[in-house]
Amino acid sequence: MRFIGFKSAMLAAGLMLAGVGHAAPQTVPVGAPASTTPAATVPASQPAPAVAPTPVATPTPAADSAMLATDGAPTIAIDPKIGQPVDGEIGLQPQVTKNGVQAAWMHNVILVPVITAISLLVLFLLLWVVARYNRRANPVASKTAHNTTIEVIWTLVPVLILVLIAIPSIGLLQAQFKPAPKNAITLKATGNQWYWTYAYPDNGGFEVTSNILKEKDEVSGNERARTDADGPRLLAVDNRVVLPVGVPIRLITTAADVIHSWAVPAFWIKLDAVPGRLNETSFTIEKPGLYFGQCSELCGPRHGYMPIAVEAVPLDVFNRWVVAKGGTVAGGKPAVAVPDTDAVSNTTGPVVNATVAPPTINQPAAGSSASASTSGH
C-alpha cells in the first residue's frame, strides 16, 4: 500500500511539471498595463480592413527670384526715349495705349495745326492793320461802322473750327470713360503722404508699397540708393507696379489723407485719388517696357517725391510675378511657377517688401468721376 501511494504521488508530481512546461506565462513589458480583454480572432477567410490613404498636402509653388530681381519686379531694359521725359523734347511722350495714340493724333494733326493757323492769321492781321491804317499811311480814318460780309465770316468760321475740333474730341472723351470689360485686371492705387500703395484684388488681394529711391548722398544706414538700372532721378521707386501687356486694366484710385493724382503720361492717364471716394478708368498697354509718372496734384511739401513706375510685361511673366508675390492668377486658381525664360534676367536684386493681404476686397467704383486728361513731359 505504501508503494502504491508513493507511486501515485510521483505520478501526480510529473503531471504537474508537464503542465507548467506547456503553459508558460506571457511576458509583459515593464511598465505596460496588463490587458484583461482577450484578443479578437479574425477568421482566415475574412479580408483585412482597408486603410484609408493619408492625404498629401499640395506644395506651395516656389517663388521665382527672377520675378523680384529689380525693384520687386522682373529685370527689364530701360529705353531712355520711351516712358520718361527726354531732354530737349517739347512734344508728348510716345503713347502705348489706344486712347493715348488717338489723343496724340488729335493733338498733332488737329489741335496744333489749328492753333498755329489761328495764331499766324491773328498776327498777320495785326501787322497789316499797323502798316495799313497808321496815321501816316491813312491820315483820314474810315467812317465804316458795319460790314455784313466780314461779320458773317468771323462768326461762321469760328463755329466751323469748333465743330471740327468737337467731333474727334467727343469720341476721345467717350473712349476715356468707357467701362472696363469683364476680363480686366484690377489695380487699386492708394495715395499717401508721400508714397503709393497698390493692391491687386483680382489676384489674391496682395499689396505693394512703392517709395521713391533716394540718391547716394541722401541715404543713411541700410537704405539703398538709386542706380541707373532703377530709373531716372526722382522717378525711380523701390517697388514697381507690374501689369500685363494686351490685357485691359481697371484702375481704381483713392487716397488715405489728402487729394493725390495718379498720372502716367505714356498711358494718357491722369486720375485723381480722393479720400473716401473711388475713381475708375481703364486702359490697355500695347508695348512692353518701363513707364514712369508722378503724383500730379499738390499734396504737401513732398508732393514732388511721389513717383510712379509701371513695368509692362507679357501675361505669362505677369502671372509668374503674381506667384512670386504670393498672389493667384485671375479666376482664383493658384498660379504655377515655371522655369525662367529669355523674357527676364536671372539677376538677383534687392530685398523687397513683404506682401500683406489687405483686410477688405475692393468693390466696383460706381458713379465715379475719372479725370483722364492730357499728360506731357
Quick synopsis:
With 377 residues, the chain is α+β, with helices and mostly antiparallel strands.
What does this protein structure show overall?
It is a single chain. This protein is an alpha+beta fold and 377 residues long. The chain contains 4 helices and 10 strands, in the order αααββββββββββα. The protein has helices spanning 2-22, 98-132, 148-176, 315-324; strands at residues 185-192, 195-199, 207-210, 241-244, 249-255, 260-264, 269-273, 279-283, 289-295, 307-313. The longest helix has 35 residues, at 98-132. The N and C termini lie far apart (136 Å).
Q: Would you report the number of β strands?
A: 10
The percent range for strand residues is 15-25%
For the largest beta sheet, what order do the strands appear in spatially? 3-2-1-5-8
* End-to-end separation: 136 Å
Which series of helices and strands comes N to C? HHHEEEEEEEEEEH
- What structural class do the secondary elements suggest? alpha+beta
| Poorly predicted runs | 17-61, 332-364, 366-377
Any idea what the shape is? elongated
Number of helices: 4
Mean pLDDT: 77
Report Rg.
Answer: 40 Å
* Main sheet overview: 5 strands, mixed
Helix content: 25-40%
Which oligomeric form is depicted?
Answer: single chain
